[in-house]
Amino acid sequence: MSTAMMKPGRGRLFVVDDDDDLAAFLHELLGAAGHQVTTFPDAASAMAAVEERAPDLVITDMNMAGMDGFELIARVRAFDPRVSVIAITAFGSIETAVRALRLGAYDFVTKPFEPQTLRVAVDRALEATALRSEVKRLRGELGGPFHVGGLLGRSTALGEISDLVKRVADSGATVLVTGPSGSGKELVARALHAESKRAAGPFVPINCAAIPDTLLESELFGVRKGAFTDARVDRPGLFREAQGGTIFLDEIGDLPLALQAKLLRVIQEREVRPLGSTKAEPIDARVVAATHRDLRVAVREGRFREDLFYRLAVIEVGVPALRDRPEDVVPLAEHFLKRTVARSGSAVKGFSGAALRKMEAYHWPGNVRELENAVERAVAMAREEWISPEDLPASLQHPAPVDILAAAAEREMTLDELTMAYVHRVLERTGNNKKRTARLLGVDRRTIQRWLGEAQTADDDDDRKVT
């Protein structure tokens, strides 16, 4: 949620009222003050819109058919505590106003009201929204993100990887980095190099899957002039080019078996013999390898040498998929945004809160690489200073349904973990209403409390079975 949008006079407002005349009046009044106003005839449609593109402020009547204003306040505040809510109450309904405030409303206005009274309340509520967003941003900066040798994020998983990188950077031991494609394995390799005593030396990456087998050996180990028809000059090879630095062997799982034996000898003997040469040459390069494959399975199936695997995996670093570390999405997105803006000269200043929530909720099958591409597209598509959900790729705006069970199985979740994740998700949808959650789950409220580790009281005895 941008601070620019939340200056008085420039807020995104949702007005919820089943009185068409009053809704039209509020739309005209607040639109004339410079706000972007959308009206809704009922709370259910308003809540659906909040979840799609959260506003800066919701102004709602309290007495409506179906979902009333009280439930709407609770659900909006549960969905995003930064969104302010103003309750419109009937004259003299102090009890209604107090209840609305207890549920999280920022302010209330009683009918009939003077236009200026509402305008002042809206300005104050937008200032409160801006303040909450700024506080959250500052707290995020105080608690992270951390930045170690190019690794950027706030998640516990990335923190553990960063700690490991700092501990082993100077050891010189070979490192095997594993993880799905696009998850940032090369960033880990570059971080190891940047944090080591070899940082002043070269970092030489090579994608073993991108070079034909017939050329890969000469690329890695070098070639002497005349070794084969097209060898017109001596070439040192990438191991020699990495002298004093780090060589990064990406997609090592695709290395042909014949070359695996030669690579093992190079790592063990710390020397290479270029094609066409009878003399070995010493090397001083740290080896970091990476793969998205399970090399242990490849070893069992005879597709990867066991001795080479253990030589590479002296230190093993696993990089989780981005969907398993959602805390890293925002700091990474902001990092990519700054870099893209600097390159393009764009006037974009940042992401709206609704855009950030879209990115946080997405499952990112393409991992960090997909996130970087999405940010670059959003900067190119943005028509305002702040990126909105409409600027993001269609896959984020209308994500395909996720196979929950398949995702849970892939993450190897236990039944307890799966149950608790589902309970918390339903609680979010019901605005933390345990009785309604229990009804939806087909259990009693005491069961919900037991799952959540909450104390039970005598008042709960009448709620053994929710029907």
Question: What can you see in these coordinates?
Answer:
It contains 20 helices and 16 strands. By secondary structure, the chain is an alpha/beta fold. The chain has four domains: 12-142, Rossmann fold (3-Layer(aba) Sandwich); 150-320, Rossmann fold; 323-397, Helicase, Ruva Protein, domain 3, CATH 1.10.8; 404-463, no CATH class. The strands form five sheets. A five-stranded parallel sheet has the order 2-1-3-4-5, with helices on both faces. A five-stranded parallel sheet has the order 9-10-13-8-14. The longest helix is centred in the first third of the chain and has 28 residues, at 115-142. The radius of gyration is 29 Å and the shape is elongated.
Given helix and strand content, the structural type is alpha/beta
CA gyration radius, whole angstroms = 29 Å
Q: What is the count of distinct domains?
A: 4
The CATH architecture classification of the largest domain is 3-Layer(aba) Sandwich
Q: What's the level 1 CATH class of the largest domain? A: Alpha Beta
Overall average pLDDT: 83
What name does CATH use for the topology of the largest domain? Answer: Rossmann fold
Number of helices: 20
Low-confidence stretches: 1-9, 138-145, 458-467
Overall shape: it is elongated
CA-CA gap between termini: 40 Å
**The CATH superfamily title of the largest domain:** P-loop containing nucleotide triphosphate hydrolases
- Main sheet: strands, sense, barrel: 5 strands, parallel
The main sheet orders its strands as 2-1-3-4-5
Helix content: 40-55%
Strand composition percent: 5-15%
Number of strands: 16
